[in-house]
């Protein structure tokens, strides 16, 4: 690792030959120069576009700005004061390097961004030089200082990168865990970038994947897991990524590996839809823990599509029930339960009163009475196909919800 003091010599030799008055000329150029740098960096490295517009963009932009301003400020200092480090700028550069490591990338893109910024700065200096009739010798000296400065910040970023690799470790599990986190991040990413990360982790990108949500504390049998399965067991909500289609053989082997675990297996999706598969798996796991889904310890989403759809948004479902089952609100709990069972049976089977009576274990005359009550309180809504459909959905969801209260 490079010691901070090692950067002072090139800074003094390169900057001391530049007239400090040049700072006055450079400062007004900074806002437009920074804008031009960012535009060219994003144009050449599309992956950086999300970083500069998404969450945390303000911090990143501020860091880039500080790098440029720090150089200008150093030009304006007397030679005897250009020694030593610039803690804020140095830490920003290290953070840039650490970020690349945490994202599972090498430093090529970051160093390319530094190079592009340097080229934009030199191009601007040539324009300013013609405007103020600066000598060619001065422009050359400025270019030397700029390249030396770029070397400093690149080395600082390498320090941060190396530090992060030490923290993360270089075992395949760690590289694959970082890859899995990028897949699930939800941010747009080119196939080429994902392929590069997969190559670093010695993993082949699949077209289809199936996510598995694990209950915290559950640990699959690693010896039984397919070597191509990605795992993040350190996450507060641990999960697995199973590559390829979940055929019968893989389903059996996965069940064996999950013996003793409480888990839910999501739906098979494209790689880009992996976050959806994990969301459904976590939803199924939550429903199994409340007793709505009973096939513990391992739940397969494909066996419970209706339940996942009906119970996917509890708050919306409550509103749905209020809207379609309002005529039942004024009844006693016993009346409401009996009429709900009768209405659900009629809507789903359209059987005769004797058939419904046999299903519900009551007398046919009781069924006929209940149907008359339902016709009275629901009125013409039972004749409207859309209303009937909404009522049936609400009743089915209500029945599913009630399972964990039995």
From TrEMBL:
Organism domain of life: Bacteria
Residue ranges of domain PucR-like N-terminal in the record: 16-183
Transmembrane segments: none
Entry-linked Pfam families: HTH_30 (PF13556), PucR-like_N (PF25906)
InterPro entries, per database record: CdaR-like_regulators (IPR051448), PucR-like_N (IPR058663), PucR_C-HTH_dom (IPR025736), PucR_C-HTH_sf (IPR042070)
Domain named PucR C-terminal helix-turn-helix: residues: 340-397
Gene3D superfamilies xref list: PucR C-terminal helix-turn-helix domain
Protein name (record): Helix-turn-helix domain-containing protein
Lineage, uppermost ranks: Bacteria, Bacillati, Actinomycetota, Actinomycetes, Kitasatosporales
